[in-house]
Amino acid sequence: MKTIILHGGASHRSELSKILEKYAKEAIEENSALDAVVKAVVLMEDDPEFNAGTGSNMRLDGSIQMDAAVMIPGDFGGVINIEEVKNPVLVARDVMLKSPHMLLAGDGAVNFARKMGYPTYDPSTEKARERREKVLQKLKSGEIPEYYHPQFFREFLGDTVGAVARFDGEFAAAVSTGGTSLTLRGRVGDSPIIGSGIYCGSRGAVVATGIGEEIMRRMLSIRIYERIGEAPLQKICREEIEKFGSIPVGVIAITAEEECAMSNLAMPYAQVTR
Ligand code: GLY
Known about the structure:
The structure is a single chain. Helix 1 (17-27) runs antiparallel to helix 2. The strands form two sheets. Strands 4-3-2-6-5-1-11 form a seven-stranded mixed sheet. Strands 7-8-9-10 form a four-stranded antiparallel sheet. By secondary structure, the chain is an alpha+beta fold. A hairpin with a 2-residue loop joins strand 5 (161-167) and strand 6. The protein has nine helices and eleven strands. The chain binds glycine.
């Protein structure tokens, strides 16, 4: 039996769940849990509706830096602040499978991607440019006091995509993001940090979405993973999300017997079992 869950980001429009269902149905046809979550994330990275790959947020300076990661029990690969590649999640998978490392960042990640044959690609979109323009204007006019003000994050959140899967007891997780909001160049969110935005072990897989700084502060994914078996998965996820108060956050999680997709605000998601 195979199950996959995809999410399109906390704070994103719930109507996008329809398109995620289509992607989930396509991804579940893959032969392994890892291939399925990677396929699911590639489909979302290629869809400019989502803040990952094509359609990623711009940094305040106009550059696009993306984070992505994949995890299976006992192994992990991630890229941080990678630029000018179409599918950061594919590079993250190559870091895990084809390099001796677990995380590559910045120029090192880009050089590795080129070595692995990924050509230069511009992931920017008109929508991302307009979004940045709008933010810069609001900052200039004083409508948003500072880029690091909580109000800024609330208004300009546009989050991560992710997937978790269980294929006959085999688990995998994958995430990709253009960064929560318009941030400083070099900023790193929770997505490529083991235990914060992603965790996968022999008991299940968890992926988080929301404001990376807050998710890292609480190491949300490992917190949920470590509690598997202690209570129903829905209860565990609800309790961990409640700790964030009104801070936007969401999770998808899967164990041997349970699945959960939950957020404290709108979050498109889809779950398919075959
Ligand atoms: N949750 C994605 C980020 O903060 O970058």
